[in-house]
Amino acid sequence: MAQAFTPRQLTDLLRAEARELGADHVGFASAVLPSPSLPGGPQAYEAWVQAGHHATMEYMARDSSTRRDITHWFPAAKSVVLLAFSYAGAPQKADAPHGAAKIARYALSEDYHDALRGKLRSLQERLREAAPEVLGRIFVDTSPVLERLYARTAGIGWVGKNTMLLSRRLGSFFLLCGMALDHELVYDEPTTDHCGSCTRCLTACPTEAFPKPRTLDASRCIAYLTIEHRGSIPQPLRPGVGDWIFGCDICQEVCPWNRFTEPGRVFPAILPRHVAPEDAAETSPEEFRSRFGNTPVERARWRGWVRNALLVMGNSGDPRYVPVLERFIEHSDPVIAEQAAWSLRQVRQASGVL
Length: 354
Description:
Blueprint: H1 7-20, E1 25-30, H2 42-50, H3 64-67, H4 70-73, E2 79-86, E3 101-103, H5 112-130, E4 136-139, H6 147-153, E5 158-159, E6 165-166, E7 174-181, H7 200-204, H8 222-227, H9 238-241, E8 244-246, H10 250-253, E9 274-275, H11 277-281, H12 285-292, H13 301-316, H14 322-328, H15 334-351
Parallel strand pairs: 3-8
Antiparallel strand pairs: 1-2, 2-7, 3-9, 4-7, 5-6
């Protein structure tokens, strides 16, 4: 006969098993939110969508009623366990190769969705073996769950002014996933805010994507523009993209809480942090799928990857890119051709090359 677990025993079991699977932080929260008006809560999320700050990411506007409480998604839920996995990686060298394009840190490892689902399924299986009477449903960031809100109430971190979840121990370079359970647990205390008067993340954003603290206008965010946006990047925002070919870490890199982060145990880098934009632009669709098909970079798709590489060339002002850009202005894809023409004008203007 299976052992009947008390809330404390079940909590301790889940914590130990999650640590064994490589989680850098584990927290527990009630499935019922204390108030829908919490910062970063359901009301704030709905106001963010209504303001159009989700840009073209229509999937973020779906399931709004489900997102209000995890019990709308898993009616039997009484508790939520949150797992945080660091992807900070080894400290980066200060000097990047001349003219190189940058990839955001989270995208240097394998696609985290499959990796985190695998961790959660292992946790679910271990829980099923020890306590078969406990039912759970796993979630990563593709589920209609406000996971950062639950992570805050579970003591993992607080929502910073750049809208990222911040941890005093992990900084912000970490990924979240979790499981809703139909049993009570022993809950952690919510984390208090430790941003103070600091506004480094807000002032560092080159595209001014934060209309106010803790509000992100995705339509101006470099990460959105280089990953989710499918058409031509708006011209006024192009210079701000700088040398980012996929994603952006600026608002995290300037955060004081990221000064002392340590490499995670689960997500080793399999891609270089910097790539040559001319090589990236010459990548064929087949090469793109082969190289990036199991990484987050695939999300940008081949067209976005080439478009971004051409934009980085334009922002560099380096005349060595003129021959490459001249070839691409005749490209059959109108988005790629237009970006090449714009970048060529920028380079010629900056360098005086006609």
